[in-house]
Amino acid sequence: MSEAHDASRKDWDTYFMDIAYMVSTRSRCPRRHVGSVLVQGKKLLGTAYNGAPMGVQDCSEAGCMIAEEWETKLGDDGKEQMVKKQRCIRTIHAEQNLLLFTDRADREGSTVYVTDQPCWTCANMLANSGVKEIVFHRGYPKDSDKVSLLMSQKGIVFRSLTDYEPPPQASMKVTS
After folding, report:
1. Which of 3, 61, 68, 95 is catalytic?
2. CATH class entry, domain 10-51+91-160
3. What are the record keywords, sorted (predicted)?
């Protein structure tokens, strides 16, 4: 194999994250397109994206169903502060769909590539799913600290691809 060929070949992280981003283009969510893929070794076992349940109007058809919740968080100054979080409850998250449509046996020891850092609920589900690694690109600051702590406690490798550039046809301006 020539060195020129090797230099032009994508590494595995880029390859699988590109697939996750392309999967995200199926989402009809106006706020955030999220895609995820399940990988065992170098074998792709499943893909999923965020959206309404099958056969139900999605957010682009019926509008988002935004729920607001308040959470206590420790500030940089060490004092507790209340933080308002908004989330759409019409959609099933990409990670949740991935878990719904893949087998537990396939997930044991596998890696999940997801375009966005999992939220708290998805992180909890992934923590019990059998995966050994979660790789993401875009951060999700609302839950970042507690999700990172959970992954550390579970011994799940949790890493961000900071220098990654998504495929141009999958780019989306993310809203909160």
Report:
1. 95
2. alpha beta
3. Hydrolase, Metal-binding, Zinc
